Protein backbone atom coordinates (compact mmCIF):
# COMPACT_ATOMS: atom_id res chain seq x y z
CA UNK A 1 0.00 0.00 0.00
CA UNK A 2 1.53 3.26 -1.13
CA UNK A 3 -0.39 5.92 0.76
CA UNK A 4 1.65 8.77 -0.73
CA UNK A 5 0.79 7.64 -4.26
CA UNK A 6 -2.88 7.44 -3.36
CA UNK A 7 -2.91 11.00 -2.01
CA UNK A 8 -1.14 12.33 -5.10
CA UNK A 9 -3.91 10.94 -7.29
CA UNK A 10 -6.64 13.03 -5.68
CA UNK A 11 -8.17 15.80 -7.78
CA UNK A 12 -6.85 18.87 -5.94
CA UNK A 13 -3.29 17.53 -5.72
CA UNK A 14 -3.15 17.04 -9.49
CA UNK A 15 -3.19 20.83 -9.92
CA UNK A 16 -0.21 23.15 -9.92
CA UNK A 17 0.08 25.46 -6.92
CA UNK A 18 -0.99 28.37 -9.12
CA UNK A 19 -4.14 26.60 -10.27
CA UNK A 20 -4.92 25.39 -6.75
CA UNK A 21 -5.02 29.03 -5.66
CA UNK A 22 -7.05 29.98 -8.73
CA UNK A 23 -9.60 27.23 -8.09
CA UNK A 24 -10.00 28.19 -4.43
CA UNK A 25 -10.54 31.84 -5.40
CA UNK A 26 -13.75 30.80 -7.17
CA UNK A 27 -15.23 29.16 -4.07
CA UNK A 28 -16.38 29.99 -0.55
CA UNK A 29 -14.93 28.17 2.46
CA UNK A 30 -17.61 26.91 4.84
CA UNK A 31 -17.62 24.93 8.10
CA UNK A 32 -20.18 22.13 8.19
CA UNK A 33 -21.24 20.09 11.21
CA UNK A 34 -21.53 16.32 11.23
CA UNK A 35 -25.08 15.26 10.38
CA UNK A 36 -25.59 18.01 7.80
CA UNK A 37 -26.93 16.99 4.39
CA UNK A 38 -25.43 18.80 1.40
CA UNK A 39 -28.04 17.47 -1.01
CA UNK A 40 -30.48 14.60 -1.37
CA UNK A 41 -30.97 11.93 -4.00
CA UNK A 42 -33.24 13.38 -6.69
CA UNK A 43 -32.16 17.00 -6.10
CA UNK A 44 -30.81 19.32 -8.77
CA UNK A 45 -27.92 20.78 -6.74
CA UNK A 46 -26.46 24.14 -7.68
CA UNK A 47 -23.19 23.62 -5.82
CA UNK A 48 -20.10 21.42 -5.97
CA UNK A 49 -17.89 20.97 -2.90
CA UNK A 50 -14.17 20.41 -2.37
CA UNK A 51 -13.41 18.59 0.89
CA UNK A 52 -10.61 20.29 2.85
CA UNK A 53 -11.13 18.29 6.04
CA UNK A 54 -13.70 15.89 7.45
CA UNK A 55 -15.66 13.20 5.63
CA UNK A 56 -18.76 13.14 3.43
CA UNK A 57 -20.71 9.93 2.85
CA UNK A 58 -22.62 9.37 -0.39
CA UNK A 59 -25.54 6.96 -0.20
CA UNK A 60 -28.64 5.75 -2.02
CA UNK A 61 -31.96 4.39 -0.80
CA UNK A 62 -32.92 0.93 -2.03
CA UNK A 63 -36.41 0.06 -3.23
CA UNK A 64 -37.23 -1.40 0.20
CA UNK A 65 -36.11 1.77 2.00
CA UNK A 66 -32.68 0.64 3.17
CA UNK A 67 -29.59 2.84 2.97
CA UNK A 68 -26.78 1.73 0.66
CA UNK A 69 -23.48 3.57 1.12
CA UNK A 70 -21.66 4.27 -2.15
CA UNK A 71 -18.60 6.38 -1.33
CA UNK A 72 -16.84 8.04 1.60
CA UNK A 73 -15.24 11.26 0.35
CA UNK A 74 -12.26 12.81 2.14
CA UNK A 75 -9.67 15.58 1.82
CA UNK A 76 -8.98 16.92 -1.71
CA UNK A 77 -11.97 15.13 -3.28
CA UNK A 78 -15.01 16.67 -4.94
CA UNK A 79 -18.62 16.10 -3.89
CA UNK A 80 -21.50 16.75 -6.28
CA UNK A 81 -19.30 16.75 -9.38
CA UNK A 82 -21.71 14.46 -11.25
CA UNK A 83 -24.04 17.45 -11.59
CA UNK A 84 -21.54 19.32 -13.75
CA UNK A 85 -22.35 19.84 -17.44
CA UNK A 86 -25.76 18.17 -17.25
CA UNK A 87 -29.26 18.99 -16.04
CA UNK A 88 -30.05 15.60 -14.55
CA UNK A 89 -31.11 14.96 -10.97
CA UNK A 90 -28.32 13.72 -8.74
CA UNK A 91 -28.45 10.03 -7.88
CA UNK A 92 -27.03 10.05 -4.33
CA UNK A 93 -27.47 11.77 -0.98
CA UNK A 94 -24.45 13.54 0.54
CA UNK A 95 -24.16 13.65 4.34
CA UNK A 96 -21.29 15.13 6.34
CA UNK A 97 -20.40 12.45 8.90
CA UNK A 98 -17.34 14.15 10.42
CA UNK A 99 -17.18 17.91 11.06
CA UNK A 100 -15.88 19.28 7.77
CA UNK A 101 -14.31 22.29 6.14
CA UNK A 102 -15.52 22.53 2.55
CA UNK A 103 -15.05 24.94 -0.32
CA UNK A 104 -18.42 25.51 -2.00
CA UNK A 105 -18.51 26.35 -5.70
CA UNK A 106 -21.42 27.54 -7.80
CA UNK A 107 -21.91 24.84 -10.42
CA UNK A 108 -22.13 27.21 -13.39
CA UNK A 109 -19.08 29.19 -12.24
CA UNK A 110 -17.05 25.99 -11.98
CA UNK A 111 -18.17 24.88 -15.43
CA UNK A 112 -16.98 28.19 -16.88
CA UNK A 113 -13.61 27.84 -15.13
CA UNK A 114 -13.16 24.38 -16.64
CA UNK A 115 -13.89 25.80 -20.10
CA UNK A 116 -11.29 28.52 -19.62
CA UNK A 117 -8.52 26.56 -17.89
CA UNK A 118 -7.26 23.44 -19.63
CA UNK A 119 -5.09 22.14 -16.78
CA UNK A 120 -7.92 22.21 -14.27
CA UNK A 121 -10.29 20.62 -16.79
CA UNK A 122 -7.84 17.81 -17.62
CA UNK A 123 -7.15 17.15 -13.92
CA UNK A 124 -10.89 16.88 -13.35
CA UNK A 125 -11.35 14.49 -16.29
CA UNK A 126 -8.50 12.27 -15.07
CA UNK A 127 -9.88 12.15 -11.55
CA UNK A 128 -13.46 11.63 -12.76
CA UNK A 129 -12.37 8.74 -15.00
CA UNK A 130 -10.59 7.03 -12.07
CA UNK A 131 -13.58 7.66 -9.83
CA UNK A 132 -15.89 6.08 -12.40
CA UNK A 133 -13.59 3.05 -12.70
CA UNK A 134 -13.55 2.71 -8.92
CA UNK A 135 -17.35 2.77 -8.77
CA UNK A 136 -17.64 0.18 -11.54
CA UNK A 137 -15.11 -2.09 -9.83
CA UNK A 138 -16.95 -1.76 -6.53
CA UNK A 139 -20.29 -2.81 -8.01
CA UNK A 140 -18.59 -5.63 -9.92
CA UNK A 141 -17.28 -6.99 -6.61
CA UNK A 142 -20.70 -6.65 -4.97
CA UNK A 143 -22.43 -8.49 -7.82
CA UNK A 144 -19.90 -11.20 -8.64
CA UNK A 145 -18.18 -11.99 -5.33
CA UNK A 146 -21.11 -12.64 -2.99
CA UNK A 147 -21.50 -11.13 0.48
CA UNK A 148 -18.22 -12.54 1.78
CA UNK A 149 -16.28 -11.24 -1.21
CA UNK A 150 -18.08 -7.90 -0.97
CA UNK A 151 -16.99 -7.59 2.67
CA UNK A 152 -13.38 -8.45 1.84
CA UNK A 153 -13.37 -6.01 -1.09
CA UNK A 154 -14.78 -3.25 1.11
CA UNK A 155 -12.15 -3.85 3.79
CA UNK A 156 -9.39 -3.66 1.17
CA UNK A 157 -10.88 -0.40 -0.11
CA UNK A 158 -11.01 1.08 3.38
CA UNK A 159 -7.40 0.02 3.94
CA UNK A 160 -6.32 1.78 0.73
CA UNK A 161 -8.24 4.96 1.58
CA UNK A 162 -7.73 5.18 5.34
CA UNK A 163 -5.10 2.57 6.21
CA UNK A 164 -2.04 3.28 8.33
CA UNK A 165 0.84 0.85 8.74
CA UNK A 166 1.09 -0.43 12.32
CA UNK A 167 3.96 -2.92 12.71
CA UNK A 168 3.01 -4.85 9.59
CA UNK A 169 -0.74 -4.61 10.19
CA UNK A 170 -3.08 -2.04 8.66
CA UNK A 171 -5.04 0.19 11.03
CA UNK A 172 -8.14 1.66 9.35
CA UNK A 173 -8.34 5.18 10.75
CA UNK A 174 -12.09 5.66 10.54
CA UNK A 175 -14.65 4.44 13.06
CA UNK A 176 -17.07 1.90 11.62
CA UNK A 177 -20.02 0.14 13.20
CA UNK A 178 -21.12 -3.22 11.87
CA UNK A 179 -24.20 -1.46 10.49
CA UNK A 180 -21.96 1.00 8.63
CA UNK A 181 -20.13 -1.89 6.99
CA UNK A 182 -23.42 -3.63 6.19
CA UNK A 183 -24.59 -0.49 4.39
CA UNK A 184 -21.52 -0.58 2.15
CA UNK A 185 -22.08 -4.16 1.03
CA UNK A 186 -25.87 -4.29 0.95
CA UNK A 187 -26.45 -6.89 3.63
CA UNK A 188 -27.69 -7.12 7.20
CA UNK A 189 -25.82 -6.18 10.35
CA UNK A 190 -26.25 -9.75 11.61
CA UNK A 191 -24.47 -11.14 8.53
CA UNK A 192 -21.59 -8.73 9.04
CA UNK A 193 -21.40 -9.71 12.72
CA UNK A 194 -20.97 -13.37 11.79
CA UNK A 195 -18.37 -12.73 9.08
CA UNK A 196 -16.30 -10.39 11.26
CA UNK A 197 -16.41 -12.82 14.19
CA UNK A 198 -15.03 -15.57 11.94
CA UNK A 199 -12.21 -13.25 10.84
CA UNK A 200 -11.41 -12.30 14.43
CA UNK A 201 -11.26 -15.95 15.50
CA UNK A 202 -8.57 -16.64 12.88
CA UNK A 203 -6.71 -13.39 13.67
CA UNK A 204 -7.22 -12.02 10.16
CA UNK A 205 -8.35 -8.80 11.81
CA UNK A 206 -9.13 -7.33 15.20
CA UNK A 207 -11.48 -4.58 16.35
CA UNK A 208 -11.31 -2.08 19.19
CA UNK A 209 -13.60 0.88 19.90
CA UNK A 210 -15.02 0.76 16.38
CA UNK A 211 -11.63 0.71 14.64
CA UNK A 212 -10.50 -2.24 12.53
CA UNK A 213 -6.92 -3.48 12.27
CA UNK A 214 -6.21 -5.91 9.44
CA UNK A 215 -3.41 -8.34 10.28
CA UNK A 216 -3.47 -10.39 7.08
CA UNK A 217 -4.73 -8.41 4.11
CA UNK A 218 -3.27 -10.99 1.73
CA UNK A 219 -6.00 -13.37 2.91
CA UNK A 220 -8.61 -11.04 1.39
CA UNK A 221 -6.62 -10.55 -1.81
CA UNK A 222 -6.15 -14.29 -2.29
CA UNK A 223 -9.86 -14.92 -1.79
CA UNK A 224 -10.74 -12.29 -4.40
CA UNK A 225 -7.92 -13.28 -6.79
CA UNK A 226 -6.83 -9.64 -6.81
CA UNK A 227 -4.78 -8.60 -9.80
CA UNK A 228 -2.48 -5.62 -10.14
CA UNK A 229 -5.18 -2.98 -10.50
CA UNK A 230 -4.01 0.54 -9.57
CA UNK A 231 -4.64 1.32 -5.92
CA UNK A 232 -6.50 4.53 -6.79
CA UNK A 233 -9.39 2.57 -8.33
CA UNK A 234 -9.59 0.29 -5.28
CA UNK A 235 -10.78 2.90 -2.80
CA UNK A 236 -13.93 3.47 -0.83
Question: What distinguishing features does this structure have?
Answer:
activator, disordered N terminus, Arc Repressor Mutant, subunit A, Jelly Rolls, 8 helices, DNA-binding transcription factor activity, 10 strands, alpha+beta, six-stranded antiparallel β-sheet, transcription, 236 residues, four-stranded antiparallel β-sheet, globular
Explain what you see:
- The structure is a single chain.
- By secondary structure, the protein is an alpha+beta fold.
- It folds into 2 domains: 11-116, Sandwich (Jelly Rolls), CATH 2.60.120.10; 133-233, Winged helix-like DNA-binding domain superfamily/Winged helix DNA-binding domain (Arc Repressor Mutant, subunit A).
- It has helices at 3-8, 17-25, 107-116, 118-144, 146-162, 178-185, 189-201, 217-224; strands at residues 28-32, 37-39, 47-61, 67-73, 78-79, 93-106, 163-166, 169-172, 205-208, 211-214.
- The strands form 2 sheets. Strands 1, 2, 3, 4, 5 and 6 form a 6-stranded antiparallel sheet that branches.
- Helix 5 crosses helix 6 and helix 5 crosses helix 8 (217-224).
- Residues 1-8 have low confidence and may be disordered.
What's the layout of helices and strands?
Elements: H1 3-8, H2 17-25, E1 28-32, E2 37-39, E3 47-61, E4 67-73, E5 78-79, E6 93-106, H3 107-116, H4 118-144, H5 146-162, E7 163-166, E8 169-172, H6 178-185, H7 189-201, E9 205-208, E10 211-214, H8 217-224
Antiparallel strand pairs: 1-6, 2-6, 3-4, 3-5, 3-6, 7-8, 8-10, 9-10
Helix pairs in contact: 3-4, 4-5, 5-6, 5-8, 6-7
**Overall pLDDT:** 89
Largest sheet: 6 strands, antiparallel
Number of separate domains: 2
CATH class of the largest domain: Mainly Beta
- Measured as a percent range, the helix fraction is 40-55%
**Strand residue percentage:** 25-35%
Radius of gyration, whole Å: 18 Å
Gap between N and C termini, in Å? Answer: 14 Å
Counting DSSP H or I runs of 4 or more residues, the number of helices is 8
Query: Shape, please?
Result: globular
SSE pattern: HHEEEEEEHHHEEHHEEH
The secondary-structure class comes to alpha+beta
CATH architecture classification name of the largest domain? Sandwich
Number of strand elements = 10
CATH superfamily of the largest domain: Jelly Rolls
- The CATH topology annotation of the largest domain reads as Jelly Rolls
Uncertain residue ranges: 1-8
Protein name: Transcriptional regulator, Crp/Fnr family
Organism: Evansella cellulosilytica (strain ATCC 21833 / DSM 2522 / FERM P-1141 / JCM 9156 / N-4) (Bacillus cellulosilyticus)
GO molecular function, one term: DNA binding
InterPro entries: cNMP-bd_dom, cNMP-bd_dom_sf, Env_Response_Regulators, HTH_CRP, RmlC-like_jellyroll, Tscrpt_reg_HTH_Crp-type_CS, WH-like_DNA-bd_sf, WH_DNA-bd_sf
